[in-house]
Q: What sequence folds into this?
């Protein structure tokens, strides 16, 4: 979720006690399965329009440069070129402002450079032409004069006194005086007195860690088709995690009325947070407006790496005190995160998540948001949390090693529970950390013997989860089947979960329900599919919408029977009189009511809209066995177990899938993946060959344990599951690798050269 | 630049098209023939989302020129299901939830089918190495491997 959308969740009392589930918890085939296995599903790049043009974008080769001039004459003269746009073709009404207050300007600046190119890959101009090849040729004809400026891409270097200033005046009021202008936001939180806590400890360990920027790595590059007329009316088809957000931003960037732009979300080929904002969508619309034709714009993989949001890179200092019995007496962390040439590195999430698994009397955390000449970071699965867990859980692991304590016993001893005051402020409601630790301890993996050269690591992890603005509409058909319109793009099988929850309420088979991701013109506002919110928030709204329809069904039955509405109840797809006093009527099936709904009061629909704030926070505990080859420095993950609290698993197979996917992405982040910048500030590995995400032969099967500690904020107890699964892996793998290699690994990724260097350093080589 | 006329066979049907010499087979399939099942994930042969077979051999269609299709036989994901019924691999992918977003699925199905035609009884390791050229970012591969192994078992029984 975006920083400005974070809200502390209040929990709540939505939970239906003692619910006996008929559909929820089963594992039916996903409704879009056939489309997805036959090639029929339409993703971002799979749509065309009559008369369509193809777009291409010119990108800066420099990490930091003043744009002196842009000459588009030769490009415009090329046969087949229909439009060229630059920043002048976007709104000039949006003004910069410090910190996140200037986010709309930041997005505009990122979509199309203004006075300066701020990173290698920054968009400078765009072309629409009659073919993709012509558009690409035309881009090469645009002549840009740059005045190259000094650049900085490293977080610590960007804070140093002599670092080039990326944009003066970007820092907001949170930043203490005396810091470099590249430090644009500051956070601190905590409670107790850490100095006293450290003084009480039997052992205090202080250490520093770094993580590199990683990309979400979705296999589908950004793609869209935009149609915009001079009348200010437009259509946009795109792959996005949230099309209302796209609508809102594009309207602002192009001076349109929001409602006049209809946005349809295509099937989405992965997002993981990276498709929660816009990159090419406003550009396609600007080109379309200028050419007066539909324009399709598809990113290449290199563009995805260079110009869309990777996650932040971090530099962190951790200090933790522990007693001989394993009690943590105090903990503090300093978290520096760079998020590219704009404010927004999720350092407060890093700081807030760092110590959240533990019940601490004394805790303090500080965060710095630092600008560098890199692409604008975007959310990546629990933004900020995995890095914090890496640093904190590495130090706890080292404390356990030095004090001779079992790492899971220590986690259990210090674990946050219901009523614990979280390190970031609020009191936890009902949470399931203890249950995940106990399940991990009981799992055969934890007691299995290790082979020589192998090490075992464990880690806990935490994520907030999110509610967010949500609208759902359910409509009954004359035959008693149901169609549901949700506004949260389905990024991992959520249509299945919605259908299961609706089936539970309506009492009709799962197969009789069709769930559609509605376009912006067909449903009320929906926040992006992010913050692990979809099964929680759209699920809650689906349940409430279905309940509204059921109330109306009961009213129709009551009217038919001539009894009071409250004398009718709903069970297994039938309206039934509530008891002998209500009268003796044959139960009325849903289809009998819907068949006559036009004549008995009109169509029967249910809808629900709200901003639910009861998303339950979630915890996980991971166990990893890793094997390190001391000759090559390469690491093999040989066994992996994920234990996570799902609250209630609506479709357990897809919950397992989220657990496994998060673990696999974490393995990539821990072992291989990193943005590598040269001294020239250019990204050196903008492709899947050199930016290596895990492949099938890199990984073992990933075992999963679903723990279910119901979230009181959801009728069925759902907690989001998508993000927490990536919080523990970096730390768990680092602990396993450190154990296997016999040397503490403090810098990610633990690539073979880094491991060899650490081994050499340790042996005095 | 003048275009090249190409006659080829796709999923058993004859097809003709004109293409620019620079266009890849993937471009032609998607943009000229309307077969958008094959996906472009990288354009450099690293992700396998565009996998098709060319005269029975598994290739990345982004690394083959459209003009090279002349006189060849191409098979894409659109041709895997024999008719109304799905191929066992397709059924097992749905049943095992071997896809989350589904963008890599067409390429993986084409690759897995090519594997099982060569080796009807692969070990887990063989499946993992055969599919190492097909990136999936959602699943961690666990359910994909299980689906392929299960489909192979079912196909062996039926054979």
A:
């Amino acid at each position: 979720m975006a920083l400005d959308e974070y809200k502390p969740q209040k929990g709540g009392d939505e939970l239906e006690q003692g619910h006996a589930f008929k559909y929820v918890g089963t594992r039916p085939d996903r409704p879009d399965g056939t489309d997805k296995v036959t090639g029929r599903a339409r993703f971002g790049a799979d749509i065309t329009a009559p008369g369509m043009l193809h777009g291409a974008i010119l990108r800066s080769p420099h990490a930091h440069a003043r744009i002196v001039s842009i000459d588009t004459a030769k490009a415009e003269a090329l046969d087949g070129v229909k439009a060229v746009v630059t920043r002048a073709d976007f709104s000039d009404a949006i003004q910069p402002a410090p910190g996140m207050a200037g986010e709309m300007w930041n997005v505009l600046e990122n979509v199309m450079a203004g006075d300066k190119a701020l990173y290698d890959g920054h968009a400078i101009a765009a072309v629409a032409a009659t073919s993709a090849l012509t558009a690409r040729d035309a881009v090469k004809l645009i002549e840009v004069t740059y005045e190259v400026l000094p650049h900085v891409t490293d977080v610590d270097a960007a804070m140093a006194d002599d670092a080039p200033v990326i944009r003066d005046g970007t820092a907001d009021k949170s930043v203490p005086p005396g810091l470099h202008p590249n430090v644009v936001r500051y956070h601190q939180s905590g409670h107790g007195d850490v100095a006293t806590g450290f003084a009480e400890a039997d052992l205090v360990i202080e250490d520093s860690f770094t993580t590199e920027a990683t990309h979400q790595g979705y296999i589908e590059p950004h793609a869209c088709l935009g149609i915009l007329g001079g009348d200010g009316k437009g259509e946009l088809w795109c792959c996005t995690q949230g099309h209302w957000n796209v609508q809102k931003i594009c309207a602002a960037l192009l001076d349109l009325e929001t409602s006049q732009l209809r946005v349809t979300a295509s099937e989405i080929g992965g997002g993981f947070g990276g498709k929660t904002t816009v990159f090419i969508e406003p550009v396609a619309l600007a080109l379309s407006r200028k050419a007066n034709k539909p324009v399709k714009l598809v990113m290449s993989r290199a563009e995805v790496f260079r110009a869309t949001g990777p996650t932040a890179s971090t530099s962190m200092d951790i200090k933790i005190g522990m007693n001989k019995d394993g009690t943590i007496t105090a903990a503090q962390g300093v978290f520096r995160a760079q998020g590219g040439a704009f404010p927004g590195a999720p350092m407060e999430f890093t700081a807030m998540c760092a110590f959240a698994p533990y019940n601490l009397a004394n805790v303090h955390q500080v965060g710095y948001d630092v600008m560098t000449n890199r692409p604008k970071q975007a959310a990546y699965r629990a933004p900020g949390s995995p890095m914090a867990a890496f640093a904190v859980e590495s130090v706890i692991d080292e404390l356990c090693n030095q004090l001779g304590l079992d790492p899971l016993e220590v986690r259990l001893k210090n674990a946050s529970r219901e009523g614990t005051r979280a390190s970031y402020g609020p009191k936890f409601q009902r949470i399931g950390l203890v249950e995940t630790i106990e399940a991990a301890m009981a799992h055969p993996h934890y007691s299995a013997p290790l082979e020589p050269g192998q090490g075992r690591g464990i880690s806990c992890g935490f994520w907030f989860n999110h509610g967010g603005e949500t609208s759902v509409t359910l409509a009954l058909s004359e035959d008693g089947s149901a169609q549901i319109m949700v506004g949260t793009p389905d990024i991992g099988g959520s249509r299945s979960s919605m259908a299961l929850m609706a089936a539970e309420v309506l009492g009709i088979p799962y197969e009789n329900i069709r769930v559609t991701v509605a376009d912006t013109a067909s449903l009320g506002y929906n926040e992006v599919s992010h913050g692990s919110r979809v099964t929680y928030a759209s699920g809650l709204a689906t349940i409430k919408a279905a309940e509204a329809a059921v109330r109306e069904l009961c009213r129709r039955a009551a009217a038919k029977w001539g009894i009071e509405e409250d004398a009718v109840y709903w069970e297994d797809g039938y309206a039934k009189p509530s008891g002998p006093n209500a009268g003796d009527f044959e139960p009325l099936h849903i289809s009998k009511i819907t068949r006559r709904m036009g004549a008995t009061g009109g169509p029967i629909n249910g809808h629900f809209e709200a901003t639910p704030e009861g998303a339950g926070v979630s915890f996980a505990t991971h166990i990893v066995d890793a094997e390190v080859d001391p000759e090559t420095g390469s690491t093999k993950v040989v066994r992996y177990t994920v234990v996570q609290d799902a609250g209630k698993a609506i479709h357990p197979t897809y919950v397992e899938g989220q657990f496994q996917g998060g673990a696999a992405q974490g393995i990539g982040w821990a072992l291989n993946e990193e943005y590598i910048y040269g001294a020239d500030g250019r990204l050196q590995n903008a492709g899947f060959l050199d930016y290596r995400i895990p492949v099938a032969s890199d990984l073992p099967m990933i075992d999963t344990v679903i723990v279910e500690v119901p979230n009181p904020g959801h009728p069925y107890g759902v907690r989001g599951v998508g993000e927490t699964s990536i919080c523990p892996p970096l730390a768990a793998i680092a602990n396993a690798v450190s154990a296997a290699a016999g040397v503490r690994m403090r810098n990610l990724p633990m690539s073979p050269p880094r491991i060899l260097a650490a081994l050499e350093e340790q042996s005095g080589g | 630049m003048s275009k090249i006329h190409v006659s080829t066979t796709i999923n058993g049907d004859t097809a003709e098209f004109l293409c620019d010499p620079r266009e890849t087979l993937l471009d032609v399939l998607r943009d000229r023939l309307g077969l958008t099942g094959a996906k472009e994930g990288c354009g450099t042969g690293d992700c396998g989302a565009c996998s098709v077979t060319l005269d029975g051999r598994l290739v990345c269609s982004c690394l083959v020129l459209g003009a090279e299709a002349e006189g060849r036989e191409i098979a894409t994901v659109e041709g895997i299901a024999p008719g109304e019924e799905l191929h066992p691999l397709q059924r097992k992918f749905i049943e095992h939830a071997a896809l989350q977003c589904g963008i890599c699925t067409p390429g993986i199905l084409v690759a897995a089918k090519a594997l099982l035609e060569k080796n009807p009884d692969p070990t887990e390791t063989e499946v993992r190495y055969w599919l190492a050229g097909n990136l999936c970012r959602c699943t961690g591969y666990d359910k994909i491997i299980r689906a392929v192994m299960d489909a192979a078992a079912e196909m062996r029984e039926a054979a």
